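Note to self: the last two entries modelled the partners one at a time, which told us nothing about the interface. This time every component goes in together.
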Amino acid sequence: MDLGVKSKLAVITGGSVGIGLAVAEGFAAEGANVLITARGSERLHAEASRIGAKYRVEAHGVAADVATAEGCAKVVTAAAQLGGADILVNNAGTGSNETIAEADDAKWQYYWDLHVMAAVRLGRGLVPQMKARGGGAILHNASICAVQPLWYEPIYNTTKAALMMFSKTLANEVVGDNIRVNTVNPGLVRTPDWVKTAKQLAGEDGFEAHLQSVADEAGGMKRFATPEEMANFFVFLCSEKASYSTGSTYFVDGGWLKTV
Ligand code: NDP
Ligand code: SOE
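The predicted structure of the combined assembly is written out below.
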């Protein structure tokens, strides 16, 4: 099936590893050009070069901290220099670990900037480019935690819930511009970060059992998704094959969500 994204420019934040990298590869495999961002430039540029060579598309790395206004502006400028974005995947993000009683304002602010303001600023900056190109697609990577909170990360739960509502609101604002906006709420995705944390908690011999215990506790399929399973869904939602989908949130969680 041709997804109709050939030669489009897809901007993916947090595209140097994990889900974002798989999404970038998914787009490139469909013939889209990609602009990936992350703070760490070495890994970012190595992956951009690899993707460009492997899929014979244009693949650019822009080192930027999207938790800052300057970082977002840098991404917007880079996309403009490439002719403008058709697709934006707001993916950069990370888990937290705190209690509400103990976390200070600075921590709340950081996650607000990373999970919400990045989407606000990049949306504000890239929507005009999409309009000029006749339309586009924006996808927000929130989390199942946006509606089914984990006890140890109240800041993550709260900011991801805000991102979900931002996505819905933006969808309403740009629906007349042929720009579709959606959210995906992933469940457990086996990224290098999960493996690293599991090794820290359970050691080299025990980490697989630890990851399995996390999946068992989630229930449903009782396994982690691969980043590629997530990417297939992301790329489809940003493609012309999903042309009637906007303003929605899709759970891709192997059955972990406990409600309808
Ligand atoms: P990873 O930690 O594997 O990758 C995160 C990516 O984001 C990296 O490229 C990182 O690069 C980049 N990044 C982090 N902070 C910033 C920043 N301030 N500015 C720019 N880039 C940044 O994450 P995952 O692939 O696991 O997760 C991706 C998204 O999916 C996140 O939003 C997460 O909340 C969500 N998610 C993940 C789940 C999972 O099980 N893995 C489940 C549900 C949701 P660098 O550090 O170099 O900046
Ligand atoms: C609009 O030009 C458009 O092609 C959307 O219809 C697609 O869903 C997306 O691929 C990007 O832009």
